[in-house]
Amino acid sequence: MRKKLIAANWKMNKTPDETRAFFREFLPLVAGHTRDEIVVCPPYTSAAAALEAAIGSSVAIGVQNVHWKADGAFTGEISAPMLLSLGVTHVIVGHSERRQYFGETDDTVNLRLKTALEAGLTAICCVGEVLEEREAGLTDDVLRRQCVRAFHAISAKKAAKMTVAYEPVWAIGTGKTATPELAAAAHAVIRREAAEVFGEEFAAGLRILYGGSVKPDNASTLMAQEEIDGALVGGASLDAKSLAGIVKY
Ligand code: PGA
Questions:
Q1: Among residues 144, 74, 154, which one has the least CA distance to residue 114?
Q2: Which of 99, 101, 156, 225 is the most exposed place for a label (fewest CB within 10 A)?
C-alpha cells in the first residue's frame, strides 16, 4: 500500500507572520492524523518560520525549487545544501509555472531532480500537458517525454525519494479538475514510464500525486482512485480549514 501524500504548494504567497498564523490554525485541525503524510511548501522566505511552527507535528516542510549547483554565481537561486542546513526535507521541481514563466526545460528539471535526490531531499517532480496538447491527443506522448527526460541518469536507488505529481496545466488554478478517471489514466502512463526506466518493483511503489484545482469537496472522489496517491494543492492550501478538509478527505 502506498501511503498518500498531501502536499501544499503555496507558490508566491504568505509572509513569515502569515505562515505562523496558518500553522496556529492548521496544526490543531490535523493533530493525530496519521493516515496520510502532509507537507507544506511555502516560499523560501517563510521556510524557517514554517519549520519552527511545525516542530512537534507530523507536518513536513518543503520548498518550491532547488538549483543543481551547491554554490556559485547563480543570482536568485537556492542550493540543496542551503535547504538541508535549514532543515527542509521536501522540494517541488518542474512545476508548470516554472516551465511556462521561467524557462524551465526538461533538461533543467532533470538537473534539479537529480540534485535534490542526491542530496537526500524528497523531490516532487511535476509533469503535465497543456490544453492544446490534450486536445491534439498528445497527452500520453508529453507525459512520457517529460518523465523520460526528468528521470535521465538517475538510479532507482536515488529515485526512492521521488514522488511524481501529475498536473494537467489546464486544471491548475482554473477550477477545472481532471475527472478521477482521466487522472488515473494519466497516472498509469507515468507509472508505466517509471517501470521502463526504474523497473516494475520501483514503479509499483512510486507515489503519483494529482494536482489541479483540488478542493475539499472533490478530494475524496480523486483520492478514491487507486492510481492517485495524494494531491499537490495550490490555491486551496492557503486556507488552514480548506487544507485540513483536503487532508481529511
Ligand atoms: P491549484 O494549483 O490547486 O491552485 O490548481 C495546483 C498546483 O499548481 O500545484
A1: 154
A2: 101
Question: pLDDT tens-digit profile of 67-109?
Answer: 999 999 999 999 999 999 999 999 999 999 999 999 999 999 9
CATH 3.40.50.800 fits 5-247, yes or no: no
Ligand 1 atom 1, closest CA: 234
Do the Cβ atoms of 183 and 228 come closer than 8 Å?
Answer: yes
Give the start-to-end residue ranges of the domains of the chain. 5-247
Residue 92, H or E segment: strand 90-93
Residue nearest to atom 2 of ligand 1 (CA): 234
* C-alpha cell of residue 41: 511548501
Nearest ligand 1 atom to the CA of 232 is 9
Q: Is 95 a catalytic residue?
A: yes
Q: pLDDT digit string (tens) for 212-229?
A: 999 999 999 999 999 999
Question: Does residue 92 line the site of ligand 1, with CB under 6 A?
Answer: no
